[in-house]
């Protein structure tokens, strides 16, 4: 069935392609944060273990919101590890870094996610896609704040 929500087919495609990257970065950051939650050790164990759980839970919820927006635009959401690996700007961690390195990697991950989100705004604005712009703004606020909070732990 044809989609007629006031956004051209070309604009919907461009927005969905950008959101695919946002979804992939969110998934990569979710996996990394959850792994760090499981594997953190050291004097900050309890603080980081709890903080990482809060963060990965928020990221998990965001995955559904982003994927559902892609679907509302009429495109399939990526859903495989290989698709996410190809689309994500955040690289996986296969080892178990020290706690401060975990924090540093998560700062870098949230900053990368913020850059990806910022790169999608022009497509959303071009298509007058306010719901996507709103979603991107909400996600950006969370990534910027989380990066700041994590960065503060390293000072």
TrEMBL record:
It comes from Azospirillum lipoferum (strain 4B). This is DNA-binding ferritin-like protein. One of its GO terms (molecular function) is ferric iron binding. Pfam families: Ferritin. CDD domains: DPS. InterPro entries: DPS_DNA-bd, DPS_DNA-bd_CS, Ferritin-like, Ferritin-like_SF, Ferritin_DPS_dom. Belongs to the Dps family. Residues 17-155 form the Ferritin/DPS domain. The gene is dps.
């Amino acid at each position: 069935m044809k989609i007629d929500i006031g956004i051209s087919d070309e604009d919907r495609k461009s927005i969905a392609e950008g959101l695919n990257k946002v979804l992939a970065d969110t998934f990569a950051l979710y996996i990394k944060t959850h792994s760090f939650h499981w594997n953190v050790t050291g004097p900050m164990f309890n603080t980081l273990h709890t903080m990482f759980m809060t963060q990965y839970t928020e990221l998990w919820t965001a995955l559904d919101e982003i994927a559902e927006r892609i679907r509302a635009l009429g495109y399939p959401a990526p859903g495989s590890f290989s698709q996410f690996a190809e689309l994500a700007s955040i690289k996986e961690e296969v080892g178990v870094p020290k706690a401060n390195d975990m924090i540093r990697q998560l700062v870098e991950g949230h900053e990368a996610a913020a850059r990806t989100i910022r790169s999608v705004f022009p497509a959303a604005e071009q298509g007058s896609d306010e719901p996507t712009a709103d979603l991107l703004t909400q996600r950006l606020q969370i990534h910027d704040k989380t990066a700041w909070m994590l960065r503060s732990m390293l000072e």
